[in-house]
């Protein structure tokens, strides 16, 4: 398999594993422009590799705020703390939803919420509107119950 095909295959695997939803803020790719991106958990500049175990699906906004960071200083303890890792940690152990707000439950959740700015007013407003529509948190995985939404997703990417 050449590199371009391998990367396309890896990207597809990352999207499907995540249910086509940001693994940080849970925004579905269907609900976001531009499309979600594979995020290197350990960035290339820190020696991370482009392999499945080092990738997570991230929305454009989360990925921009995360950048190449792998840790941050906790405002409460002043300790250096690794960011949330969707491959080795469970979202519900570090965050919970309080309406449209993403509330950290742990120090890992706290540094990640702060660095990725989950609760910027416009992000909370988008979530609140999606909640009103019954569309957050929402997964676009290949569940037959969501076939209508899936076909809309597919059209968005195939219509040129
Ligand atoms: Zn996100």
Describe this entry's structure for a reader.
The chain has 160 residues and is of the alpha+beta class. The chain has one domain. Helix content is 38%, strand content 14%. A two-stranded antiparallel sheet has the order 1-2. A two-stranded antiparallel sheet has the order 3-4. A hairpin with a 2-residue loop joins strand 5 and strand 6. The two termini are 27 Å apart. 26% of the residues are buried. The C terminus is likely disordered. Zinc ion binds next to helix 2.
Topology as a string of helices (H) and strands (E): HEEHEEHEEHHH
Bound molecules: zinc ion
Q: Would you count the extended β strands for me?
A: 6
Shape, please?
globular
Q: Numbering strands along the chain, what is their spatial order in the largest sheet? A: 1-2
Counted by DSSP, the helix tally is 6
The rounded distance between the terminal residues' Cα atoms is: 27 Å
Task: Tell me the count of domains.
Answer: 1
Gyration radius, rounded: 16 Å
Strand content: 5-15%
Average pLDDT reading: 87
Largest sheet: 2 strands, antiparallel
């Amino acid at each position: 398999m050449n590199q371009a095909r391998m990367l396309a295959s890896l990207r597809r695997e990352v999207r499907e594993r995540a249910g086509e939803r940001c693994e940080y803020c849970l925004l579905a790719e269907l609900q976001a422009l531009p499309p979600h991106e594979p995020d290197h958990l350990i960035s290339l500049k820190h020696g991370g590799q482009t392999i499945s175990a080092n990738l997570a699906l991230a929305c454009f906004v989360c990925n921009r705020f995360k950048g190449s960071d792998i840790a941050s200083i906790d405002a409460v303890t002043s300790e250096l703390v690794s960011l949330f890792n969707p491959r080795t940690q469970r979202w519900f152990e570090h965050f919970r939803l309080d309406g449209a707000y993403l509330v950290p439950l742990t120090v890992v959740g706290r540094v990640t919420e702060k660095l990725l700015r989950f609760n910027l007013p416009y992000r909370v407003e988008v979530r609140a509107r999606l909640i009103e529509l019954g569309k957050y948190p929402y997964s676009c995985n290949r569940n037959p119950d969501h076939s209508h939404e899936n076909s809309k997703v597919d059209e968005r990417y195939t219509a040129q």
